[in-house]
Design brief:
The protein is flat, with a radius of gyration of 32 Å. The strands form 2 sheets. Strands 1-4 form a two-stranded antiparallel sheet. Strands 2-3 form a two-stranded antiparallel ribbon. By secondary structure, the protein is mostly helical. It starts with 16 loop residues before the first strand and ends in a 6-residue tail after the last helix. Among the domains are: about 15-80, no CATH class; about 85-140. Helices cover about 60% and strands about 5% of the residues. A hairpin with a 3-residue loop joins β2 (about 25) and β3.
Length: about 180
Amino acid sequence: MKLHQPYRERNAPLNGSVDRSDQINPKFGHDKRFASHRKYNIKYVWERQNAILHRVALGDPNVDIARDFNTTPQTISNIRNSKVSLAILDQHRSQLSSEMEDINERVSRFAPVALQLIEQLILNDEVPLSLRAKYAAEHLNRAGYGPVHKNLNINRQLTREDIEQIKQRSRAAAREAGFNVI
């Protein structure tokens, strides 16, 4: 019998529980981490890890994944960065990539049909004018002819004198309002 056995025994089934209570650590003797009350359902562990890696492949942050799986972000990071997980993660990403390509192709094929339907809707006099106007505005917006949005950004650097003047004005306003200013 070996003194230290690998994490998953060679003959243990992947879908069964593994009792590791008889494990002996060569340095410290009987390893308490593997007490008889601890049994690992390997199938559950792998399914959970795959679900976590699927979320990682989708781009979810560690904190969100950890919250949903009731674990710590560090545990998610450990799973994310293990050698086995990196290979599985590549598979998840390639699967997601092919799914996205399929969706993109379907959208591209459907776009002319949708455009024709929107045009018919806008040109149909039986459809209420408000609905036709709404779809016409959305169509123009998607084509790049939407409403103009003006943003006004003002940047100014304040000097020490400016800051002192602001402080004096705020103190004066506080005194006028009846506050005791120190």
